[in-house]
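One-letter codes give the sequence; the fold follows as tokens. An example follows:
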Amino acid sequence: MKTTALETTASTDILPIFQAFSESYRLQVIELLRDRELCACDIANHLEISASKLSFHLKTLREAGLIQGRQEGRWIYYRLNLPRSEERRVGKECRSRW
């Protein structure tokens, strides 16, 4: 079966997302960020991993477009990269689970 250029582009666009979801630490980071923004040090403490190991996983999530970081002084705070309406929906779901 021959692959079209459109199919190839679509598969290469989505590949980083699947790669990001393929590691349990990255899934845990996404779960932690579902309802709040956290600094990298808090994420590392929660996951009990080194800052350098976390940095690798955060880079993968950023490159896949799943999270965003913002610097405030010495700290970098991360949050999910969702449209505003989706952020509100995810936040409501998280609050309803607790």
Remarks:
- The mean pLDDT is 83.
- The longest strand covers residues 67-72.
